[in-house]
């Protein structure tokens, strides 16, 4: 090129507008970023599996999951596509659903580490409860969980049993008063919720809510009026469906978001009062209900470590919110379903009452947890069939290889015995699908059959489940429910008092339709009733 040609070329180049240069340059940069992201961020690719496609380009099947009975949906899809399948999550995203026992064990063992919550979930949990145990991941999760563990030990729960029995007998007296007044119908779920709250108040925080005595704490109204944002107006519903893709939408103060935030606000004065009481009692070395409670043990542990209380007071408040919110809803749910199943299966109810009456008194801790086989079988079977949190979803934060119990075939026809999971893939685990799988539990998997827990009757498939007592109701691995033994003792002690003293029936017989009331968990209700009402016919046992 001559000197003149070179000068002309430079002149033409300099005449190009910034827009003309910037446009192609931006495309090059974006293209390079896309290629680097595609080929460098993940060393594996998640294979395409069979699964349902949604009717919505925006939401995939998420709309169906949010508005319907998700356990029934996952069961239907598992029968059609196999235990491990894909789901359309909208915007071209695909998730993987695990129903394979071996795969789920691997997945849950890596929860909070390889697999972490969706950003949407963490924003939602922080809005409701703050950055506590349910919100935390990895080392933060371990650090928050560690000091709480001793409060849920067998020795600690043994100490809470007096509280559980005291409230169960108080509930018994209330029901006797209702029956003596001439009424034979009792809204059992309402009374169970009161009992659950009072048990959590005293055993959890040394705080008496007095629900069984007629008090109506503000927090009860918040819990009972709690709704998922998708249930509170059209705008909230649309934003809630979009929020998994755009978590920042949860910062917009819609009616649904305000309702969620009110939960945290209602628990604030309780937590602040607890902190003040704790400081006073610790300084005076008082031995009170608070000092023996779950939170009291947490406070003592901090004082022993640092010599003072206050450095981690915010974590105590977060723990209090989490225990109260999670414990109240799940215990109410599980006990309500236990009474429904006993009312549907009167011969089971009679057999359980016989076992309890033969004992003749409130069971000791050892008897309650290990010495009443039919009570244990009834509780285990109810927990197996009715899971408060039926499924969870996590996002892979690194590539992984998930082992499978049996080979599966991809849509490309490839048979695989391990499932590659690329970083960024959404992975679902369906606890109800496993708990009710006919392949695992047999042809009667969906039937309420306590006898399966007696005399080593469990199938080999059921014994392969690594969850608590071979069910996934309490999850497993890093996030296994910390309060599982607390919940079991609470449920068993309440049942032991009430079943020994009363007989229960559904209002229209064993086939009375049971519906769902969508709250923090999907509470059961008599289908014809409003709200979460669960009226049962109750009379004194002969």
Automatic annotation (TrEMBL):
Xref: Pfam families:
p450
The record's annotation in InterPro entries points to: Cyt_P450, Cyt_P450_CS, Cyt_P450_E_grp-I, Cyt_P450_sf, Cytochrome_P450_monoxygenase
SUPFAM superfamilies in UniProt: Cytochrome P450 (SSF48264)
GO terms for cellular component: membrane
Q: Which UniProt keywords apply?
A: Heme, Iron, Membrane, Metal-binding, Monooxygenase, Oxidoreductase, Transmembrane, Transmembrane helix
Q: Where does heme bind?
A: 481
- List the subcellular locations: Membrane
Q: Which residues cross the membrane?
A: 20-36
**Molecular function terms from GO:** heme binding; iron ion binding; monooxygenase activity; oxidoreductase activity, acting on paired donors, with incorporation or reduction of molecular oxygen
Matching Gene3D superfamilies: Cytochrome P450 (1.10.630.10)
What organism, scientifically named, is this protein from? Coprinopsis marcescibilis
Family to which this protein belongs: Belongs to the cytochrome P450 family.
The name under which this protein is listed is Cytochrome P450
Q: Which cofactor does it need?
A: heme
Q: What is the lineage of its organism?
A: Eukaryota, Fungi, Dikarya, Basidiomycota, Agaricomycotina
Pathway annotation from the record: Secondary metabolite biosynthesis; terpenoid biosynthesis
